[in-house]
Amino acid sequence: MSVTSLGAPARYKTIGFWALKSVLAALFIAAAGAKLAGVQQMVAELNQIGLGQWFRYFTGLTEAVAGILLLVPATTAYAAAYLTLVCLGALIAQVVVLHGDVIHAIVLAVILGLIAWSSRNEIFRSSATGKP
Fold first, then answer.
1. Beta-carbon contacts of residue 78 (< 8 Å; ≥ 6 apart)
2. Number of domains into which the chain is organized
3. Is the dihedral of CA 69, 73, 78, 80 positive or negative?
4. pLDDT tens figures, 63-106
5. Separation CA 73–CA 22 (nearest Å)
6. Which of 30, 36, 103, 122 is most exposed, with minimal Cβ within 10 Å?
């Protein structure tokens, strides 16, 4: 068995991981853009939650930043952990106030949680060196 045949699964795993992170980053950046642009559905949902429009701007900005940081290897774990919390917050809002679809929030939270978990070595490495 050659060395190149042993490296193929790892390469596919890396490519798949990057593809998944790219799709999720695009999803959150698009959602952030809709919030920041004032798409009527986003304005209405956040009005219904009752936290005011400042919260729409805050979540839009933080989702955009976290979506970008999801693609930076040194910050992937932090961004995925943060976005997991965002999804859990969305899940709570859907259950308590909006009474809407919870499946998307659950699926995204699980996927992002798994990304954070699989990237946890970056957190430990950065805490040991003191650099992100």
1. 69, 123, 132
2. 1
3. positive
4. 999 999 999 999 999 999 999 999 999 999 999 999 988 999 99
5. 12
6. 103
